[in-house]
Amino acid sequence: MADTLTLTLEPRTVLGKKVKSLRKAGIVPAHLYGAGAGSQALQCDAKTLIKVLSEAGMNTPISVTISGQREKRLTFVREIQWDPVRGDMLHVDFLHVDVANEITASVPIVLTGESPAARMVADGAVVQLLRELEVQALPLDIPQEISIDLAAIQEPGDVIRVGAAPLPANVVALTDPEEMIARLEISQAEAAAPGDEEGLGGPDGDAAGEGS
Which residues, in sequence order, are CB contacts of 30 under 8 Å at separation 6+? Predict the structure, then answer.
């Protein structure tokens, strides 16, 4: 279960193209929507917002308080818009959720440990094929990340599939259980059979270019 962060947002009256003036003043426009929250235009100081979002990512719940209102709302960040040139944060969408209703989320996959198979071949390396896992759970049960131990790749032919991912009992994977998360990749030079001289001899075993 992820820790809940807190954030205070201000009601926003500046809308449309006029929000450029907010950004110039160091304020980021935000939007809150979802279960029982309606649709609310909000804003927050850029430094405060960036600090909280850098800790929360997309899977840590954030308890949002709106200035002038007593109610606290459990939310998740659903979208962050960035300036493609300057890299500035332009807008943030918060999704208000009901703690009693399950939601879906994309959770990062983190590889840990070492593969015994990778030590068996000189040019072998573990390749991560899947970066995120789609899961379903109650909001407060969504994991921040899913750790996969590479010790499961014991032999060069072994792979780790979604069905083998260690998930809490109250979290369900929605991604195809047969989809591969990681496998060992061997370079062509290592995979080639020793002494393979294909192409050096003719159909009868004579050296190429040996003439009459």
Answer: 9, 12, 41, 42, 43, 44, 49, 91, 92, 93, 94
Q: Is residue 196 part of a domain?
A: no
In this structure, are 138 and 87 located in the same domain?
Answer: no
Distance of CA 209 to the CA centre of its chain: 56
CA-nearest of 39, 54, 43 to 5 is 54
8 φ/ψ angles, rounded to the nearest 5 degrees: -110, 130
Q: Where are the beta strands (DSSP E) in 19-102?
A: 27-34, 38-45, 62-66, 72-82, 89-96
- Taken as a whole, the chain contains a residue count of 212
Backbone dihedral angles phi then psi of residue 158, each to the nearest 5 degrees = -75, 145
Considering its fold, how many domains does the chain have in total? 2
* pLDDT tens readout for residues 88-125: 999 999 999 998 999 999 999 999 999 998 888 877 78
Instruction: Give residue-wise pLDDT tens across range 36-54.
Output: 778 899 999 999 999 999 9
Strand 180-186's sheet: what is its strand order?
124-128, 180-186, 159-161
Q: How far is the C-alpha of 187 from the C-alpha of 76, rounded, in Å?
A: 42
74 plus 115 within the same structural domain: no
Range of the domain at 180: 103-191
Q: Which of 135, 140, 143, 136 is nearest to 97 (CA)?
A: 140
How many beta carbons lie within 10 A of that of residue 185, not counting itself?
16
Question: What gap in Å lies between CA 91 and CA 93, rounded to an integer?
Answer: 7
Domain stop point among 62, 96, 130: 96
